[in-house]
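The authors assume throughout that readers already know how a fold can be written as discrete tokens. What matters is that the chain and its backbone geometry are given together, residue for residue. A single example would do more here than another paragraph of explanation. For illustration, here is how one protein appears when written out as sequence plus structure tokens.
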Amino acid sequence: MRVAVVGGFERGALSESFLNGFREAGADSELVPYMNWRPARPQTLRPMALARYCADAWLGRRVRIRALVRTLSAIRPHLVFFVKCDDLDDPAYRSIREQTGAILGALHPDDPLRQWRVRRLGLRNRHAVTQIKAVDGYFTWSLQLVATLTSIRERPVHYLPFAADLSVYRPWEPEAAAPEYSAQISFIGNWDPERERWLEAVADLDLAIWGDAYWRTRCKSSIVRSAWRGRAAYCDEMAKICGASKITLNVLRDQNKNEVNMRTFELPACGSFFLHERSEALARFFLPGRDCDDFGTPAELREKAQFYLQREDLRTQLAASALDRVGAHTYRERASEVLRAVRAIGVNCDSSQ
């Protein structure tokens, strides 16, 4: 099967992980870079400046969509698999289907129905419902979202959890990681108020935070703010942080509560012992007490962090168990699930004609 993966093109992007996964699963795959595009916002609210901004945004998006359709038409894939792609509209999906004859599949790595809280009313992901309805196969990482999204689509929604890209995330020995990454406890992720609240419980235990500048500009706790290492970390650097830390933390965002996120798989793939915010979904992949441990309150997080910091042998044992288990949760396995679902969709399409 020939697959075109449409999405971000930077190293470590989910689209690249799926590209690698499809190739490992035996598909002839190609990455078609596509990122949502907007011109720089005007510095003034004058009507002419705003009108020019809106015109540039509309025209720029149309140009990019036409280029995407041309590229896909030249590839002639059997499957076009979209990873996110929030600004594709219904005419774009129709054009791609008409020009390629391909089955269309999509996965959104966030909750596609999230609402803006501050900036504006409505969906955070502009054409989320359009994509949910337009594609032949829609995939989501959350069992909780399956039921919600099924009410929007006439066709099934497929559960497809995150996984580990073992070509990017792998163990680093502490001696191979530069001293700048060393810390008792590390958290790799961006700021939000709840994460700040959780991390304050362990901020005095030699905590290192790697994430965007919101940790400096929006974080109210001075002790948490002082733990910020000044930037985000990705891919190999993230693996080095895990190798140089005794404990890594996974605090879930609101949309991932009671579920898992990408870090659930990336941390054990890096050979790290991790503490994970309590979630019913975690045990489907890693069992607290056997592969990792979990916490349900800031006080429990502090108690368990202090416990494991004194027990190197136990940390090593649990990290090794998690690393062994993550091998069953790779993007090769997830891509294979997509291909099986797509083949079933193709059979159903053929039988209905």
